[in-house]
Amino acid sequence: MKKKTLIAGALLLIFTLAFSVFLVASLSGLKLSANPQIDFKTTPPIENVNPNIKGLNEAFVEIAEKVTPSVVYIEVTGTAKKEDKNPWEFFFGPDFRFEQPPMHGTGSGVIISSDGYIVTNNHVVKDASEKGIKVILTDKREFPAKLIGTDPNTDVAVIKIEADNLTVASIGNSDDVKVGQWVLAIGNPLGLTNTVTAGIVSAIGRNVQINMDSYAINNFIQTDAAINPGNSGGALVDINGYVIGINSAIQTNTGYYQGYGFAIPSNIVKNVAQELIKYGKIERGYIGVAIKDVDSKEAKGLGLDKAKGVLIQNVIKGSAGDEAGLKVGDVILAVDGKEVNAANQLQTIIGSKHPGDEVTLTIFRDGATMEKKVKLKPKMESDAGKDINRNQYEEGETQTKKYDNIGITVTDISEKIKNNYGIEGGVYIQNVVPYSEGFNRGLRAGLIIIEVNKEKVYSVSDFDKIIKDKKEGDVVVLKVMTQNKEIRLIAIEIQ
Q1: Which residue among 123, 151, 248, 322 is the active-site one?
Q2: How far apart are CA 54 and CA 347, in angstroms?
Q3: Which member of 108, 174, 202, 232 is catalytic?
Q4: Which of 42, 64, 267, 300 is the most exposed place for a label (fewest CB within 10 A)?
Q5: Of the candidates 252, 279, 306, which is a domain's last residue?
Q6: From 70, 108, 151, 155, active-site residue
Q7: DSSP of 354-385, one letter per residue?
Q8: Is residue 25 in some structural domain?
Q9: Phi-psi region for residue 99, left (φ > 0), alpha (ψ -120 to 50) or beta?
Q10: pLDDT, tens digit, for every residue of 164-203?
């Protein structure tokens, strides 16, 4: 038995050794290690970078390093507006009060003096409570800020912190800005502090209505550098590091960046900021006219050789323009010898002046060019009236006529309307065909046509005599009165 056991053990040992040899041979190509080392490739795919691209990259880095310390993060706390009526009274009685949580917002600002003056947007700080503005610098220092002044017409505001030796931004000349040039937007979008984005200037002199105030100066630099909520009040910077604009608004359907951002030109910001720091408010001079750009049809109807200048659509009674002899239908071609071809361009020039300042306007009227000196006055409101009651047009016998070549139907107006609106006559637009020439040019039911090509019309018969002699392609300029008694000029091409 012992001999057999020894033989079995020996055979088992031989088998085990043979299997081990086979296993080692099978795995001879596999290297195992408890601490594997990867030899990463570190040589660049492109050895010689295009010097132009490298230079641009270095420029962006340098701009960000130099300018970012002059851009601050702003936190604003305000009190929610109180309701005129207590919405909880019905359920809990008149003494119940529900405390609204404080409003909270964020934005950006640009340091313009080493002792703490900061420019930002009016809409960032306008609803702040008395001690509700806090400024955080790029080095994480925090300061309470005092509101120095705001200007809703330009969306510019100035705040002040008590600090010294701050990094001050260099303010450039926005008149030198060109479409297509590189720019960087620096600010704090969506709470992401010290964010830098790059793009180009997409347009200048952009007339974007950021509020419904007819006195607002809407003359923006448009950029495709990404701007989002929180960028407001931050810097738009050129390749020299100059701040050429203060970021203010975006055009979007979602509330976030979709490729179109707008900045207030630095020259406007400088003028407004200086006056706010000096006086705490803005005193602007006004001509007292309603204006619009001149398009090709209006140019043809008014006798201009091309679309140029700014058309006066209404003159406020007693205003500087009224006293200077300006008239509805005049075209302003220049201010103090400087050519103007856009309404917001004229607003910007006049908006930089004060009551009592005198300007010389070059005017085109009835085929002739003349000059008018206008002494600017403070802001005046027009004497707008109540809406016209359409039922008043139905009194008495009236004539009604449809004009397919314009796309409108007009009717005579009553004596009551003439008296109420202080007009001798006119025709009431009863209907406008959707997407007709009249509709596309801005005619709407409820307007009163009081002149055609500067010829007064007292009735449908008068209107018909003028229109029936016009042929296809002719342009007529209609002087109309709106439902709140404002005057407008609308050029219509006969179809």
Answers
A1: 123
A2: 42
A3: 232
A4: 42
A5: 279
A6: 155
A7: -TT-EEEEEEEETTEEEEEEEE-B--------
A8: no
A9: beta
A10: 999 999 999 999 999 999 999 999 998 899 999 999 999 9
Identify whether the C-beta of residue 108 lies closer than 8 Å to the C-beta of residue 71: yes
Q: DSSP letter at 101?
A: P
Q: Determine the pLDDT at residue 29.
A: 54
Is 64 in the same domain as 153?
A: yes
- Per the annotation, the verdict on 232 as an active-site residue is yes
Catalytic residue list contains 123:
yes
Q: Is residue 479 part of a domain?
A: yes
Is the separation of the CB atoms in 342 and 205 below 8 Å?
A: yes
- Structural domain range at position 483: 390-493
Tokens of 491: 């050029």
Tell me how many domains the chain contains: 4
Q: Answer yes or no: are the C-beta atoms of 71 and 187 closer than 8 Å.
A: yes
**Residue 354's CATH number:** 2.30.42.10
Structural domain contains residue 44: no
Q: Clarify whether 104 is annotated catalytic.
A: no
Determine, yes or no, domain membership for 167.
Answer: no
Residue 468 scores a pLDDT above 80: yes
Polymer length in residues for the chain: 495
Cα–Cα dist 434/307, whole Å: 26
Which residue is listed with tokens 């001050």?
168
Among 348, 375, 402, the domain-final residue is 375
pTM of the model: 0.73
Q: What is the CA radius of gyration of the chain?
A: 35
Question: What CATH number did the domain enclosing 122 receive?
Answer: 2.40.10.10
